[in-house]
Amino acid sequence: MFTKHELLLEIRDYMMVAIATFIYAIGLTLFLLPYELATGGVSGIAALIYYSSGIGVEIPYAAINVVLLALGGKILGLRFSLKTIWGFGLVSFWLWFCQRILEDPVTHQLPSFLGESDMFMACILCALIEGFALALCFHYNGSTGGTDIIAAVVNKYRDISLGQVLMYVDIIIVSSSYFIFHDPKKVIFGYVLLVLSAITLDFFTRRFNQCLVVYIFSRNYSVIADAINKAGFGLTVLDGEGWYTKTERKVLMCVCTKHYSHEVFEAVKRVDPTAFVTVSNASNVYGEGFDKMKTKVKGMKPIIVFATNNENKLREVREILSDRFEVRSLKEIGCFDELPETHATLEENSLEKAQYISKFYGFDCFADDTGLEVKALDGAPGVYSARYANLEDPDYSDPEMDITKDHDSEANMRKLIYKLKGRVGEERKAQFRTSIALIYHGEVHLFNGTVKGVITEEKRGTTGFGYDPIFQPDGYDKTFAEMTSEEKNSISHRGRAVEKLVEFLNSNKK
Questions:
Q1: In this structure, what DSSP letter does residue 291 have?
Q2: CA dist., res. 6 & res. 431, Å (int)
Q3: Where are the beta strands (DSSP E) in 387-490?
Q4: What is the pTM of this model?
Q5: What is the pairing mode between strands 326-328 and 443-455?
Q6: For the segment 196-205, what is each residue's pLDDT rounded down to a tens digit?
Q7: With 0-12 CB in 10 A as exposed, 13-18 as middle and 19+ as buried, what is 84?
């Protein structure tokens, strides 16, 4: 569901795309079609069909776009697809509308406003209007369809400007106009239009997305930082020293788009009108909230974070995922925080941890929460399995427990064996259950794995970790701690959950 603010932004996007498509259609109707100019994209193909057959340009334009969107819509996502349908649907409508308004009612010819011989000026004006309209449309997350769809797909994975992509795709379309006009001059004008349109597109795209680096020097830096954060911007506090006063100073650095820079300046001025502020242009900004680096590093695997520092867990998962991903631990991404686990279910806890890493570190990640659920203890220790011995229990005390440890596996096993003392058969039934929460390309997915077994009366085996020495899975005569890592991974709760995770990742390569 959208928040009120998000809904208003969506409405704004749709309205701006409507304006951009109207401008685009005006440019084609006034300066392209009357002068029989060639251009690229689906609009170019539709124009060639119009020149050769007289079929309304809006008809082939809409038909070809439907096919392209059907092929590229899944990659670009629902929101882009909806705005693309909105975009090319409006272009088709505006083309029909503009032609009906401007054409001669008898001859159905479009007027040449610049004079019939001024093809060069028509070429320039069409290119400027077309490039500006496309940039405006892309800026508000829309598209006029056609090769814009191809460009957006390529731009999603490669660090190539949209203008370049469009030029490479469209050059063939413009060249083919010779077979209709048999006039080299019109083909040359088509190339001119194509290049100028691409340059205009890149120019306005940079203008719309221009970023600023703002440095703020103020003794009241902490209040300013809070105000800028409240306005929705991230920032960094740097250490500095005023060389004139020989005193330490804090410097705030904030990167924002030029469009929203006034909000940063307002936040500063409200707190400290005398603050020293310096601003510089940033031509390219990559990272959270801005563009993604699309440069490919040869041999580099995609990074995915497993939200743990437990070496045993990491080893198990890396053995399964290492052929496709570089699996990093928390400390390997610079996270030394205690991850939150405030819920009463495994699913909620695993999701809470994954969301924490995704929000504050920006990586695709997954987190697990595992619980040992014993039938005779009504599912205990469950979500408290790792800290079972630390829970207050008036019926049990353990003088051997290391109270300095938050996760004492030996103490946990001693307590569980004590709690099941004298119980036999069905009363010793238990299950290990693992819930994995994955956040992958911004989407949340949950996977569960379960293995049933019994709690043994004493520890057996020296491998594994946690409760492995006292858990014997059904169908086996040895505990997890007596198995090899390959045996355990093939049947373990975590192995089964990871198997589902791997199956998903393999079938959803992005």
A1: B
A2: 44
A3: 429-440, 443-455, 471-473
A4: 0.57
A5: unpaired
A6: 988 898 888 8
A7: buried
